[in-house]
Amino acid sequence: MITFEKCIALVFSLMILGQAYLVRRYVGTWLFPACLFGLFWFGFTFFPLAILFWIPVNWLSIGFILLCTTAFSATALLFEWKTALKRNLQKPAPATYGSELLWKVFLLCASLAVFFLLVDWYNQGFSFADLLLRLQDSAIAYANVIYSENIVLPDFVQYGLVSCYLASAIGGILFEASEKKRRWKIVVLSFAPAFFVALAETSKGLMFLSLAFFCAGHWVYRICSGRPILLERQLLRRAIPIVLVLCLIFAFAINMRSSQSEDTRENAGLIASYAASYCCGHLYAYSDWFSFVTRSARSDTTYEPSHFPIGFYTFMAPYNIAGYHPNMPMGIFDDNYSNGPLVSNVYTVFRELLMDFGFFGTLLFMFLSGLMLHYAFYQMLSKPLPAFTSALYIFMIAAFYNSFIFSLLASKRFYLAFVLLWLVMQVNKNRSSSPQGWAQVRQAPNTDVRISGSFTGERAV
Questions:
Q1: Which of the two ends of the chain, N or C, has the fewest CB atoms closer than 10 A to its terminal CB?
Q2: Neighbouring residues of 364: CB distance < 8 A, sequence distance ≥ 6
């Protein structure tokens, strides 16, 4: 019975990929909101289901995710994309994305992010000698402080995270808009704050969120330069060292968090359990909660219903700004799902949406979100040098990635970072559009090349 239900769940996961592929065939590129959302949720469902095949899952919970992605994707059919794509091809090459202003803001954000994180490290009672000489012991101690909920996070830490988001996003824009000799410097500065957090605090989330911001910025440049291709062979070769470094730091951080015993076998088991929980726990925890609230299958945990106003979990930040500050556990939910090697209190954005809006309300939310984001993407393609919609596209990608954990719309620093990026890109657009501004623009090699194959029916990824 477990095998049958798991197979149905895998079929639903493949259907998530299938509906994304159909949209890609319709619009001509993978760099499309519906396509990217489908790709993310294919990955967030298929690999946990396939890797931990023996752990039961409620196939209806995966079916609901399929319905949500389909509702989101359906709004793509409401726009005339051929017109927008032709307008996008008529734009001048986006040399403005290599401007001196973006370079200065990028360097400032990367520097501020590292500075604020170092100050927080010192503020929590750790010295720079601990960082250099006792990295593992101090990183474990810092993590224990965080998860015991005794940590004090001053405002400047939030500003450091905002700076990290901006540095990664602008770094992605600058990467291809710059000379080759500058690109490794951009990569190092874009990820340095996230690498520090992963090594000094054993927290991996910022590292992968920074990667999402970086890729989103890079894709904005590609779209605005008439090259809406998700992956290229040349880019893949460049990305291999970055991916290897990310994997090594991820493995090192997990090893530091898990290797607290002298027994080698016990440590190996802890590392495997922690890695499985981090990569796969979200889906099985969500499925268990879904089984409990719908009574469609046996649940291993008892869950409390929501006692908060409608939309609170999804839009926690606006509620907080309005003065509503209920006591919340760390990690949104304090329910701990456990099954075999999995231990997780991460339940995906879909638990938040269902608790906020119910079954049909969640489908309506996904439809309206798709309508808004596809309209913004249409405007991004149609207008020269888009600022607001480019910033929105970047944060949309970050929100798609983070949806396997929780809604980024619940975070106040998400809104702050978005407004700041929008302002930076608007000022950059205004300066570059003036006669005086063009003198400050760096023209990247081959930025005038317009490869429109993915919009004209040619084979492209």
A1: N
A2: 71, 357
pLDDT tens-place values along the chain, 461 residues long? 568 899 999 999 999 999 999 999 999 889 999 999 999 999 999 999 999 999 999 999 999 999 999 999 999 999 989 888 888 887 766 667 888 899 999 999 999 999 998 888 777 777 777 777 777 777 777 776 666 655 556 677 889 999 999 999 999 999 988 888 888 899 999 999 999 888 888 788 899 999 999 999 999 998 988 888 888 777 777 778 888 888 888 888 887 766 555 666 777 778 888 888 889 999 999 999 999 999 988 888 889 888 889 999 999 999 989 988 888 777 788 888 988 889 888 899 999 999 999 999 999 999 999 999 999 999 999 888 889 999 999 999 999 999 999 999 999 999 999 999 999 999 998 887 654 444 444 444 443 333 333 433 333 45
Q: Token digits for 369?
A: 């979100």
Sign of CA dihedral 395, 397, 402, 404: positive
Phi, psi of 216 (to 5 degrees): -65, -45
Length of the chain: 461
Phi/psi region, residue 170 (left: phi>0; alpha: psi -120 to 50; beta: rest), is: alpha
Cα gap 287→290, rounded to integer Å: 5
What are the CA-CA distances from residue 451 to residues 134, 229, 393, 456 (Å)?
A: 51, 9, 21, 10
Cβ-contact 171, 221 below 8 angstroms: no
Which distant-in-sequence residues (6+ apart) come within 8 Å of 269 by Cβ? Answer: none
Does pTM top 0.70 for this prediction? Answer: yes
> What does the CA dihedral 335, 337, 338, 341 come to, rounded to 10 degrees?
-120
Indicate the DSSP class of residue 308.
Answer: S
Find the largest Cα–Cα distance for the chain: 70
Q: Please check whether residue 9 is in contact with residue 434, taking contact to mean a CB–CB distance below 8 angstroms.
A: no
